[in-house]
Amino acid sequence: MNIMEIRTKARRLKVEHNIGLLVVDYLQLVHGVGRIESRQIEIASISQSLKALAKELNIPVLSLSQLSRAVESRTTGSRPVLSDLRESGAIEQDADVVIFIHRPGAQGQQVDPGKENIAEIIVAKHRNGPTDTIELVFVGEYVMFANKEATRKEEKAVSMDAF
Known about the structure:
Layout: H1 3-17, E1 22-24, H2 39-57, E2 61-63, H3 70-73, H4 89-94, E3 97-102, E4 118-126, E5 132-139, E6 144-147, H5 148-161
Helix pairs in contact: 1-2
């Protein structure tokens, strides 16, 4: 699908169904229009078009993006950083918020005992607010994330029920 098709469909859905969110899964599968010099320029154009569409329709646009392979080869750890966004610095520049999900235990990294299911939600960029890292528990059997504190309370309740 190309960016013009996405724009057309989003406009129609806004009029017909008053959509409140547009999700693009994922950015690198979208094609630009016309003749483009390089993939980086094409991704930059797509990113700028999505930003303009968000403003035009007054809705958030959630765009998923792959990371570059540089993360895997880094010797200083595999926590993603803004420069790891694949194929264009324009994604970083155009985005209001950039969030990474990082699960060290899922990538075969050495983690402390009891932290195998910990996922870091890394708010790497927030144009209008703070950046931070939030730890959640990844519940694999449901493919979901849960608040660490809520999980601890549930574990205590279950252990108390055993008595």
